[in-house]
Amino acid sequence: MNNYWIFVVNDWKDSSGHKHKANEIFDTLKVDKVWGIGERTPNRKNLSSGDKVVFYQAGSNGQRFLGHGTLSSKCKHFSKDSHYSEKTNNIIYEWGNIVTFEDFDAFEQSKPLSDLAENLDFIVKKEMAAAYFQSGVRSITKTDFDMIVSEDLVKISQKGQEEGIEDKGLFVLEKYLQDFIVSNWDNIDFGQKLRIYQDDDGNPGPQYTTDVGYIDILAIDEKNNFVVIELKKGRESDKVVGQLLRYIGWVKKNLATKDQGVQGIIICKDLDEKLEYAVSAVSNISIKRYSMSFKLL
């Protein structure tokens, strides 16, 4: 099974004080079909041959996608290699590790993040899109990968229809509610004591990447069982229940041990009859409603 990644490149100063521009790093390493990986880079141990990668230039002069490629190796230790150019050796030597590529191509024209952010699911707060590229190696779904490398952008209105969004106002509101829940985690009553999950590579539970999409929040209960939390976000009841069941199935197969259970929680503003009937047939999914108040002082 192939994984999908974003490799982030930024301007970088080596130990001698020489500054390497992000676009120059990309252009140099592209020639040798190789990429440097730091000793503490999250997800480095999960990289493997056949994985798909898109390259993103961060920083105030970047915020754009530069190209894409397919890995031909896992992450491995690097020592200066004579068959790479001197410039490549000098760039990646201090990073300690490398991955090699079967193919490594630049886009004909770089793709500004501002043109794509609205259509990328892992970017929840669109006005803060650049903040989602802090890690050197970030996991994404195949859907988001295809969106980035595609020559044709999907209109946001079309995407909303595909996701079965009934209430676009709630769709936007509950994306911000997710951030509020995470920020105020210890003050929220879930009916049980929960903590936000973080995997061995440091990937946090909010917007947790799976092969079938991004889990809104992945948590652990007091008995060390997984809890998949999904906000309804104005979507049709059948859509949100179906998505939650896919996430539960993925967690059971890929994260949970034989002794760990997996349950789901749907958070919504109003409880409708369709959602009640759908959840009543599944023993490991519960519903939590929220209310909001707004007052000007």
How much helix, percentage-wise, in residues? 25-40%
Number of domains: 2
Second rung of CATH, namely the architecture of the largest domain: Roll
Span of the ends, CA to CA: 55 Å
Total helical segments: 8
Poorly predicted segments: 154-162
* Morphology call: elongated
CATH C-level class of the largest domain is Alpha Beta
Order of helices and strands: EEEHEEEEHEHEHHHEEEEHEHE
C-alpha Rg, in Å?
21 Å
* Fraction of residues in β-strands: 25-35%
What is the CATH topology classification name of the largest domain?
A: ph1033 like fold
Number of strands: 15
Mean pLDDT: 85
Q: Describe the main β-sheet briefly.
A: 7 strands, mixed
CATH homologous superfamily descriptor of the largest domain:
ph1033 like domains
Secondary-structure class: alpha+beta
What does this structure look like?
This protein has 297 residues and is α+β, with helices and mostly antiparallel strands. It folds into two domains: 4-149, ph1033 like fold (Roll), CATH 3.10.590; 160-289, Trna Endonuclease, Chain: A, domain 1 (3-Layer(aba) Sandwich), CATH 3.40.1350. It has eight helices and 15 strands. It has helices spanning 22-32, 86-92, 113-116, 142-149, 156-162, 168-183, 237-254, 273-280, and strands at 4-9, 12-13, 19-20, 34-37, 52-57, 64-71, 76-77, 97-112, 137-140, 194-196, 206-210, 213-221, 226-231, 262-268, 285-289. The strands form three sheets. Strands 1, 4, 5, 6, 7, 8 and 9 form a seven-stranded mixed beta sheet that branches. Strands 10, 11, 12, 13, 14 and 15 form a six-stranded mixed beta sheet that branches. A hairpin with a 5-residue loop joins strand 2 and strand 3 (19-20). The longest helix has 18 residues, at 237-254. The protein is elongated. The relative contact order is 0.11.
